[in-house]
Amino acid sequence: MNKRTQRIGLIGLLLALPFMGMAQSVSALLPLESAGTFTPISSPDYTLGSATMDDQEYVDPASLTTGSAPTGPGFALGFTVTINGVSFNKIGISTNGHATLGSASSATMTASTAFGAVAPTPPTGGLVLAPLSADLQGQTGAAIYLKSQGTAPNREYIVEWNKIKRYGSSGTGDTFTFQLRILESGAISYVYNKLLTSSTTATAQVGIRSSVDFTNATGVWGSVLQGATNTGTLNYTGGITSGKTINWTVPACPPASLVVTTKTPTSVAFSISSFVGTTFEIEYGAAGFTQGSGTVVAAGSTGSISGLSASTCYDIYLRNNCSASNNGYSNWVGPINVCTPCLVQTMPFTEGFGTWPPLCYTYDSGDEDWIHNSAGYAQASYWNYNDKSFILESAPISINVPARVVMDWSHLASTSYPFDSLTVRVRSMNSTTWTNVVSLSGAAFNTPGATSTGPAAIFSHEIAYLPSAFVGDTIVLQ
Fold first, then answer.
1. What is the pLDDT of residues 424-452, one digit of tens each?
2. Is the pLDDT score of 40 beyond 50?
3. Alpha-carbon span 74 to 371, nearest angstrom
């Protein structure tokens, strides 16, 4: 294979860095086992499935018997339920003992298709509720009933799996009837009528799964505990008394969750949500700092941290302050890692790649990484590779006058590798549309004196003018 090296100096560049935060958290919800009453659904709004249902999802009221694709309009709850700051108004059902709540901000939703639905991350925007998530199927008399009932603000939505069994079980040894109940207040419970099985070892995933974490019930009936891993299971054999209930309860001072909303080179803004409370504490410091040695500040449901350094990564820890209700503090949650963006550079701006990595550049977002050559240039080495991309994206710069890109590069063109190419492109900071300003391939992408193992003594020199539409804008170059 041909080894190709490139040396690029760039003027007028922008880098936009991503950030990370925490979305909806459910890990504070604890499984509380109790004896209750199983009340079968009468006059259901919808009856789903049939005796032959197996591995089906129901996300479309127009397809009740055979199910539908996992993505669809969902079944309307009849109200909006908010669970730790996230709102849902629709639901999709799986024959495999779980349901997915769909975001109120979207016209459609996608239901989880997993057997064990607490382990995997749910579909985008969804919250998985799993009363008995396993490989289940229908049998004679089996159905899934849906019912929305009550009046505001105490409405309730019920999903009832009726006479379901384990996949592949024969005879009449298995009969499972259980419910998911969702209150308008956000309270969630699982209520069981019959869990009859000939097995003594059968397990299921029982819990709740959000996009960031989970909570689940593990162990055996009578000593149910919150699980430590998302693959934890509950042994549901041994028989139960009708009305066995798992309520997902909020402790007196539950942990909170934080989402970074906006960033500047010297600050980050955030929002905080919790099942209980509106007063919190955050501790922050340089990425990797030892928790307990950082800066601690009080925070409300929204706030910001200022006085940060540009192009620097920080860790944030968070806890709920419930002292006003005499319930102390929650455990610390974190670290939540966030990196501030680079300062916008001014013209003229030059990067010679003498040090590595270059400030505010990304060099590792392609199939392979750009590397630093000790001779003082950036190198994309294709030796032993075929059909690979190398992407080098620049630091931020404001274009206040007509600008050009000036770069030096070296490459050996070969007819054995006719698809080698070099492209330089530009986009506005707030756009995803790229405009090519340099495109080199074939004979045009060759430097006299370059070899298969190194660059030419004198690099090729390239000048390209940016379109005038970018004057007055902030750009990114690749």
1. 999 988 788 999 999 999 999 999 998 88
2. yes
3. 49
Phi and psi (nearest 5°) for 43? 50, 65
Bridge-based pairing state of the strands 214-220 and 203-209: antiparallel
| Residue that has been written with the tokens 């309307």 in this structure | 76
Element (H, E) at 413: none
Over the stretch 273-318, which tens digit does the pLDDT of each residue have?
Answer: 888 888 999 999 999 999 999 999 999 999 999 999 988 999 999 9
* Residue owning tokens 């197996």: 54
Domain ranges of the chain: 1-16+342-478, 30-249, 257-339
What's at 95, amino acid-wise? T
Phi, psi (rounded to 5 degrees) for 338: -140, 140
CA 340/CA 45 separation, integer angstroms: 50
Mean pLDDT, the chain, rounded, equals: 88
| Residue range 197-224, pLDDT digits in tens | 988 899 999 999 998 889 999 999 999 9
Phi first, then psi, for residue 317 (nearest 5°) are -115, 155
Residue located via tokens 């803004």: 269
Query: DSSP letters of 247-314?
Result: EEEPPSS---EEEEEEEETTEEEEEEE-SS-S-EEEEEEETTPPTTSSEEEEE-SEEEE-SPPTT-EE
Mean pLDDT of 326-336: 90
Please say whether the beta carbons of 247 and 207 come within 8 A. Answer: no
The pLDDT of 253-266, averaged and rounded, is: 88
Helices (H), 314-472: none
Distance CA 445, CA 425 (A): 16
**Which tokens hold the place of 125?**
């925007």
In angstroms, the CA 185 to CA 159 distance is 17
pTM as predicted: 0.65
CATH top-level class for 257-339?
Answer: mainly beta
Beta-strand pair 234-235/214-220: parallel
Question: Smallest Cα–Cα separation from 145: which of 191, 177, 111, 187?
Answer: 177
Phi, psi of 32 (to 5 degrees): -115, 115
**pLDDT above 90 (res 368):** no
